[in-house]
Design brief:
The complex is a heterodimer of chains A (about 160) and B (about 290).
Chain A lengths: L3 E7 L2 E7 L5 H8 L18 E4 L2 E4 L12 E3 L12 H8 L9 H14 L5 H7 L11 H15 L1
Parallel strand pairs in A: 1-5
Antiparallel strand pairs in A: 1-2, 3-4, 3-5
Helix pairs in contact in A: 2-5
Chain B lengths: L5 E3 L4 H10 L4 E4 L5 H6 L10 E4 L9 E4 L2 E5 L4 H6 L1 H6 L1 H8 L4 H6 L2 H7 L7 H6 L3 E5 L4 E5 H4 E3 L2 E2 L6 E7 L7 E8 L7 E12 L2 E10 L6 E2 L1 H7 L6 H19 L5 H20 L2
Parallel strand pairs in B: 1-3, 2-3
Antiparallel strand pairs in B: 4-5, 5-10, 6-7, 6-10, 8-9, 11-12, 12-13, 13-14
Helix pairs in contact in B: 11-12
The chains are: A alpha+beta (about 160), B alpha+beta (about 290).
Chain lengths: ~160, ~290
């Protein structure tokens, strides 16, 4: 299999890689770049655990070939923290007890992050729609929705 | 596991067509990848022969939505999110925007393309019933030819279309629609999001006073592929949209679907739902 060169920005840093074309973005993030915050769940685009933000949009990194992300700007959960300070979404997920086992949380955070970037004043329904593709089997969704609402309010203050 | 494959990223449609036309290998187009990649994972027979993928996602000459004299042109790599957010589509072809907004999840809609939806031609493809009632025409290009044909003729049977290995569906054209047409779309899944449709219905009606001047009816998921009901449409034209007739038409739609699919384990449930929902849709579009 002929390897190909790709380059994209992850969390503001340039990454240059030579990869096999059958590698998914998820594989490259986790295995080549060591960004294991992005989780592998169902592998078929149903659970949302692998969600990252690609050029401003929430996407499944398990359904995108790494080669398809060539030239893109990607944000993973590792990129939410700025200068050691948690993102308002992260703070409020902790505050509202939105995290139990934590496996779905990186995906939840990035779906919420993409939502708030596009719509800083989401209604409850907007939040529900944004995270409809992210499954959580521990906490239930109520605390997660509250945390996103609180983060939005905080950012708008 | 994704098999060992080659990957080509063309810079424009022309290069994509050349890549498809030139290769002796089994080359397949990938756009959003939301069917192909899960297909690889379950080792689906439909994708087993792929040797090289030609990536058309985001190609600038396939991501347009333009209103022209002959209708609305939607490029071959336009995503469901593009459809949902497009004010022209929401205003002029609302059933399509409505169907698109219920596909998968935000993550799926951000990647999946509307053309991919019907090229894959799953029975449950949500965009197909609205496209069919809007009389969608598609443009198919290859290095050797360029043709247009009605979407209805393009769709052959489940997971099978007229598309040849070296061809790309480069655009969809939705003909202009008189503003007197009123429409409704209905989707039933097992849950509200990330749900494969169990039933989809689309209907467009043009009334003259209370007389049905034109009606277009399409279903998905309850038929082998998304399809129009031409005989029922003809039967309805010229009839008065009274409650009794709308009931009769809804019963007939159910009977027609049963004729096509035969009795199934789910028929006892789906048949009355189809009939009831279609009746409600008809009442809404006819203001009865």
């Amino acid at each position: 299999m002929k390897k190909i060169n790709i380059r994209f920005k992850v969390n503001g840093r340039q990454a240059d890689l030579t990869i096999a074309p059958n590698k998914r973005l998820l594989d490259v993030l986790r295995d080549d770049l060591g960004l294991t915050g992005t989780k592998e769940g169902c592998d078929i685009g149903e659970c949302g655990a692998c969600t990252v933000v690609l050029n401003g949009q929430a996407v499944h990194s398990c359904l995108i070939l790494a080669a398809q992300a060539n030239g893109a700007e990607i944000i993973t959960v590792e990129g939410l923290t700025q200068n050691g300070e948690l993102h308002p979404l992260q703070k409020n997920f902790l505050e509202y007890g939105a995290v139990q086992c934590g496996f779905c949380i990186p995906g939840m955070l990035l779906s919420s992050y993409a939502l708030l970037n596009e719509n800083p004043n989401p209604r409850e329904d907007d939040i529900k729609e944004a995270i409809a593709g992210n499954l959580c089997r521990c906490t239930g969704y109520k605390q997660i929705i509250q945390a996103v609402e609180a983060a939005a309010n905080e950012s708008n203050e | 596991m994704i098999p060992e494959i080659g990957y080509i990223r063309p810079r424009n449609l022309h290069e994509a067509l050349e890549a498809l036309g030139a290769s002796r290998e089994t080359v397949r187009v990938i756009a959003g990848g939301t069917d192909i990649i899960p297909g690889f994972h379950i080792n689906s027979r439909r994708f087993r022969d792929i040797q090289t993928l030609v990536d058309i996602s985001g190609l600038p000459d396939l991501t347009f939505v333009n209103l022209e004299n002959d209708g609305l042109h939607i490029g071959g790599a336009v995503t469901f999110t593009d459809i949902v957010k497009n004010p022209l589509i929401r205003e002029k072809y609302p059933l399509l925007a409505q169907a698109a907004s219920q596909v998968g999840s935000v993550q799926i809609r951000n990647r999946a393309t509307i053309v991919g939806n019907f090229v894959n031609n799953a029975p449950c493809a949500d965009s197909v019933p609205p496209l069919l009632v809007y009389d969608a025409v598609i443009k198919i290009q290859s290095t050797r030819s360029e043709k247009t044909l009605p979407l209805e003729d393009f769709l052959l049977k489940p997971y099978k279309t007229q598309l040849q290995p070296d061809e790309i569906v480069s655009e969809i054209v939705l003909p202009p629609l008189k503003k007197e047409y009123r429409g409704e779309f209905y989707k039933l899944g097992r849950r509200r999001s990330v749900a494969i449709s169990r039933i989809t219905l689309a209907v467009l009606v043009k009334l003259e006073d209370l007389v049905i001047e034109d009606i277009r009816i399409a279903s998905g998921a309850v038929t082998p592929i998304g399809m129009r009901f031409r005989e029922l449409e003809e039967f309805s034209k010229g009839k008065t949209a009274e409650i009794d007739f709308l009931k009769e038409l809804s019963v007939k739609l159910g009977e027609e679907i049963m004729k096509i699919t035969g009795l199934r384990w789910s028929s006892a449930y789906k048949l009355p739902v189809v009939q009831q929902m279609f009746y409600l849709l008809l009442r809404r579009v006819c203001n009865r």
